[in-house]
Design brief:
This protein is mainly beta. Helix content is 0%, strand content 48%. The chain contains no helices and five strands. Strands 1-2-5 form a three-stranded antiparallel beta sheet, with no helix packed on it. A two-stranded antiparallel sheet has the order 3-4. β1 and β2 form a beta hairpin. The radius of gyration is 21 Å and the shape is rod-shaped. The N and C termini lie far apart (48 Å).
Length: 71
């Protein structure tokens, strides 16, 4: 099959609140460039969907935000 090409990116920043407490913020993007890998090509000549791509092999872009307080 075709290769699946996904690139993920995470950015994290730590802030000191006090000497003991820290605030950590991170943002993650999965499949950051939103490259689509199609699959499921219908090859049955008797099918009404002949030659059509019917599925996506990878996941669409997803974003995730995270906040944490450490002590």
């Amino acid at each position: 099959g075709a290769a699946i090409w996904d690139q993920d990116l995470t950015v994290r920043r730590q802030f000191g609140i006090t000497e003991r407490y820290k605030f950590v913020f991170s943002a993650s993007a999965f499949n950051v460039f939103n490259v689509v890998s199609f699959g499921g090509l219908t090859t049955s000549i008797n099918s009404s969907a002949f030659g059509q791509l019917s599925t996506q092999q990878n996941n669409p872009r997803k974003l995730q935000l995270d906040a944490r307080i450490s002590f």
